[in-house]
Write a structure and sequence with these properties.
With about 260 residues, the protein is mainly α. The protein has one domain. It is globular and about 60 Å long. The protein starts with a helix and ends in a 7-residue tail after the last helix.
């Protein structure tokens, strides 16, 4: 475990080395958070409630999803695919540690950094710009939210890892990567809350693993699930994290049996 902890720590330090890029990203997320909050305010000007969301809940959802983008690496993370294309994957496979665990530890360190330097600052910006609805039962909601956030990172990592593994078989992995990003963006609750969809479509989307990446943490933070409903929601998220990591492990094992370094 010390090895994986060290990998996570080094991933944190690696993110710190790109201070200017992180500041630029923080500004960009905050800017688009503001751009997205304006039409939300306008939408609730003529009606107090949309699919169970009032104005304050919708605004808080907006800033939440903006703050989660980098934590779950919603739009990109292709380090595994790049090592496959360059041939460096041979070095990674020769390491005396689990291949999936190696990349997971690095991603956890990256996500931890984003939690401190993106998630918290963006919520502060949201509070200053438009105000947020903070949990009314923080002693319960914050621990549940942190648990949900960890599970979201694990689910997202497994999905991104599987997309990266496509480079083992495809000369150009970017097509499948783009399709994967489109699925995550549209089906996770990032563009609009899943509650805004018709009931049948909503039920399907909430049953998919993509909801565990964005919508579930937002639902927990907004306290839209309580008691047994909250327990079942976190259990579903845990189930998807386990399933997705299991599939990612199987995919890595399958790829290793037929690994071919391009050009070699």
């Amino acid at each position: 475990m010390r090895v994986y902890a060290e990998l996570a720590r080094r991933a944190w330090q690696r993110q710190r080395a790109y201070g200017n890029a992180n500041l630029a990203g923080l500004f960009t997320n905050s800017f688009f958070g503001y751009i997205r909050v304006v039409p939300l305010i306008a939408a609730f000007a003529s009606r107090p409630d949309i699919s169970g969301y009032d104005r304050d809940a919708a605004i808080t959802w907006n800033w939440l999803v903006q703050s989660l983008i980098t934590i779950v690496a919603l739009w990109g993370w292709w380090e595994v695919a790049l090592t496959i294309r360059s041939g460096e994957v041979a070095i990674d496979l020769a390491r005396p540690i689990h291949y999936l665990g190696y990349w997971l530890a690095r991603d956890v360190g990256r996500a931890a950094y984003s939690t401190v330097y993106r998630f918290i600052p963006i919520l502060i910006v949201g509070q200053l710009v438009s105000g947020l609805r903070w949990p009314e039962a923080p002693w319960l909601t914050w621990p549940a939210f942190l648990c949900s956030l960890v599970l979201a990172v694990l689910t997202s990592f497994a999905w991104r890892f599987l997309l990266n593994l496509g480079a083992f078989w495809l000369t150009d992995y970017r097509a499948i990567a783009s399709l994967g990003l489109v699925a995550t963006t549209f089906l996770s609750g990032f563009l609009v809350p899943l509650a805004f969809f018709p009931p049948v479509i909503r039920s399907i989307l909430e049953a998919l693993p993509f909801a565990a990446i964005i919508q579930t943490p937002a639902t927990v933070f907004l306290e839209r699930a309580e008691g047994m409903d909250l327990t079942l929601l976190l259990a579903q998220q845990l189930g998807w994290a386990i399933v997705m990591l299991g599939v990612a492990h199987w995919g890595a094992q399958f790829a290793m049996r037929r690994v071919t370094v391009q050009g070699g």
